TrEMBL record:
Ranges for domain ABC transmembrane type-1: 26-289
InterPro entries in the cross-refs: AAA+_ATPase (IPR003593), ABC1_TM_dom (IPR011527), ABC1_TM_sf (IPR036640), ABC_transporter-like_ATP-bd (IPR003439), ABC_transporter-like_CS (IPR017871), P-loop_NTPase (IPR027417), Type_1_exporter (IPR039421)
Residue span, ABC transporter domain: 353-562
Protein name (record): ATP-binding cassette subfamily C protein
Subcellular location: Cell membrane
TM segment ranges: 21-54, 74-96, 152-170, 176-194, 262-283
Superkingdom as given in the UniProt entry: Bacteria
Keywords: ATP-binding, Membrane, Nucleotide-binding, Transmembrane, Transmembrane helix
Organism (species): Novosphingobium hassiacum
């Protein structure tokens, strides 16, 4: 049975409950209630203290039950108030600490959930996504979700405090409290009137934030190309535009926020004036009722103001949670079949593509239509063809990264479907045209994905990849490669990447135009390395280089729409 979908607020509260755990929330709620109670009791103490100051009998009929307390020495009463204030300060500290910790937990939980969902999604879905959007979600938006946890607790604290303050006021004088509630209605009406204005500002802010984030990440990722290609000026212009839009959106948001804040203070002052007028001119309330109720109302104003601010921030930050949940939902709907417990099929005979059709979303013509190919295990096959003919797509299918829309990819007769396709990837290694190297040592980079390989295995792999230059480095395997391997030449980076691939001892090694950055001497060395793999590993080379084609046992020439 599918019920009504939960409202965004309920969904947000559920996320907070799941991240924090019910036990922790109950503990925090207890702290908040006790802390607010101490405040209520402290304010209630004003009744006997005012009675003592105003003189005997000033408590009147309403405060008659506090007569015994009023008989206590004034010093004792004041000491009790001070003790309550200290106790409340300690409780407030605990509540604040719990609030911050809940915020941090929420950010962490949402970050991990989002990242896991993205990582588990199908490659074809991932290709359609914007990386900068994902960065924005994982960084800024996840932080805002953390704020949501703090705001939820702050709102709860405000509501509990307001309830206890109102209850205390009722104990002192219910008539005055009714008048106070009527004036509070004025405040609430004002807040509701401002709500839609605030929501529009929130949406605009979120959109502007995403756009600016995209500009920042895209700009930094592609700075090299922009600098060389003379596109810096347009990059700067786009960034400036996004920054201006962000400034305006933030300005509008802050203005709305401040306006609500100021309006609230004005309405609160008017309400307070009305309260004093009605109390003195119509209800003829005694001082012992009026002073505590006024003190309670004066305390209620900042409580209501923070409540309003927290509600406004809650609305603002909830849009971040909506965004993250949408992303998680979409990624989960596009999840890859799980491979845990599935044995990767070994390639001993042949890798076969049978009747393959592959069509990308939004493209009229398929890249492959009924395509057939057999690759004998241990052979070197070169896939050649013009740009856009489908070389990378073919490699993606053979490596198990994507599955065709029709037809089968078979490893020794086993169709690569579902979890088997994912498991097969553990037997495949891939060297990209522009290899990925991160800012760590050579050893760190080689051990990427294989953290337990010893130094001997690393040197063996470097030897196989013709990367003997590492031995000549003063720090050897401990040499840092710099961000994206910038401390090495293009050819050296590719040989390091080849060594990393060989360390995996793959059944299938895919090399994507890897010799394009090598000089003839290095190319010959790498070609020799690849030739040495014949028989022990199936090698798929993407590219047109004649040197590579000569090495291959078989050259597959692709034409667009094969
Ligand atoms: N994720 C994708 N979404 C939509 N179309 C895609 C996607 N990936 C590739 N294509 C399209 O599929 C066709 C084959 O692309 P592919 O990258 O496999 O070709 P290629 O031969 O490797 O090209 P190149 O030599 O230029 O790298 C191209 O027309 C390309 O535009």
């Amino acid at each position: 049975m599918s019920g009504k979908p939960a409202s965004p607020t309920v969904r947000a509260l559920r996320v907070i409950r799941d991240a924090a755990g019910v036990g922790r929330l109950v503990w925090i709620a207890a702290l908040m209630i006790v802390s607010s109670l101490t405040e209520g009791i402290g304010l209630l103490m004003l009744v006997p203290i005012t009675g003592l100051i105003a003189g005997k009998g000033a408590l009147g009929a309403a405060g008659a039950w506090l007569e015994p307390v009023a008989a206590w020495p004034v010093g004792l009463l004041l000491a009790m108030v001070v003790a309550l204030v200290i106790m409340r300060a300690a409780l407030v500290y605990l509540v604040l600490d719990a609030r911050y910790r809940l915020g941090l937990t929420l950010t962490k939980v949402m970050r991990i959930q989002t990242q896991n969902a993205i990582l588990a999604a199908e490659w074809r879905w991932l290709c359609r996504q914007s990386s900068s959007d994902h960065v924005g979600h994982l960084m800024g938006e996840a932080d805002r979700v953390g704020q949501l946890g703090e705001e939820a607790l702050s709102i709860a604290t405000g509501l509990i405090t307001a309830t206890i303050l109102l209850f205390t006021a009722t104990v002192v004088s219910w008539k005055l409290t009714v008048v106070a509630l009527a004036t509070a209605g004025l405040v609430a009406t004002c807040m509701i009137a401002m709500r839609s204005r605030r929501e529009v500002a929130v949406v605009r802010y979120s959109d502007a934030y995403q756009a600016l984030n995209a500009q920042v990440t895209n700009g930094l990722f592609h700075l090299r190309a922009a600098r060389i290609g003379g596109a810096e000026a347009s990059l700067v212009e786009q960034f400036n535009h996004a920054a201006r839009v962000m400034e305006l959106a933030e300005q509008q948001y802050n203005r709305t926020h401040s306006l609500v804040h100021v309006m609230l203070q004005v309405v609160a002052a008017v309400s307070l004036g009305m309260l004093v007028y009605v109390a003195t001119m119509h209800l003829h309330s005694p001082l012992t009722a009026l002073v505590p109720v006024l003190a309670i109302m004066a305390r209620l104003v900042p409580v209501a103001t923070s409540l309003q601010q927290d509600l406004s921030r809650w609305g603002h930050d909830r849009s971040a949670l909506d965004g993250l949940q949408d992303l998680i939902g979409e990624a989960t709907r596009n999840v890859e079949a799980r491979s845990a417990g599935t044995d990767a099929p070994a390639l001993r005979e042949a890798l076969v593509l049978r009747g393959i059709t592959l069509r990308y979303e939004g493209r009229e013509t398929p890249v492959f239509d009924g395509f057939e190919l057999t690759i004998a295990a241990g052979s070197v096959v070169c896939i050649s063809g013009p740009s856009g003919s489908g070389k990378s797509s073919l490699a993606d299918m053979l490596s198990g990264l994507i599955s065709p829309d029709a037809g089968e990819v078979l490893v020794d007769g086993q169709p690569l479907a579902g979890a088997l396709r994912v498991a097969w990837r553990s037997r495949v290694a891939y060297v990209e045209q522009i290899p990925y190297l991160f800012d760590g040592t050579i050893a760190d980079n080689l051990r990427w994905g294989l953290p337990h390989e010893d130094d001997e295995a690393l040197w063996d792999a470097l030897g196989l990849a013709s990367a003997s230059f590492v031995a000549a480095l003063p720090e050897g395997l401990a040499t840092r490669v710099g961000e994206q391997g910038r401390q090495f030449s293009g050819g050296e980076r590719q040989r390091l990447a080849l060594a990393r691939a060989l360390l995996r001892k793959p059944d299938l090694l895919i090399l994507d135009e890897i010799t394009s950055a090598l000089d003839s001497g290095n190319e010959a060395a790498v070609i020799e390395s690849i030739a040495a793999l014949k028989g022990s590993c199936t090698v798929l080379i993407l590219g047109h280089r004649s040197t590579l084609q000569r090495l291959a046992d078989h050259v597959v020439e692709l034409a667009p729409g094969d």
